[in-house]
Design a protein that fits this description.
With 94 residues, the chain is of the alpha+beta class. The chain is 27% helix and 37% strand.
Length: 94
């Protein structure tokens, strides 16, 4: 798996904005990626030092629209904690 395929998009919620004071950022990542690949991709692409990576898998929920039943997509979330003194400039402007 190529490094650019590991990180899909940032997760921007109220809870993730509050955790930025602890130098933690949340991202949706590829379901096949492990913690080592996520850390390597982050350090290479964004040129920052990562202290810790925590991952969580979420199953898609069943949703109903009238008589039609479907499921939302399942995804993997990664919480990336940067080392002290490191800044992630891209998301700090939002």
């Amino acid at each position: 798996m190529h490094l650019t395929e590991v990180i899909k998009k940032p997760l921007l919620t109220e809870k993730t904005y509050a955790s930025r004071s602890n130098n933690e950022y949340a991202f949706i990542v590829d379901k096949r990626a492990n913690k080592v690949q996520i850390k390597k991709a982050f350090e290479t692409i964004f040129n920052v030092k990562v202290e810790d990576v925590r991952t969580m898998n979420y199953d898609g929920k069943e949703k109903r629209m009238g008589k039609f039943v479907g499921t939302k997509a399942s995804y993997k979330k990664a919480i990336i904690k940067l080392k002290d003194g490191e800044k992630f400039e891209i998301l700090n402007d939002l």
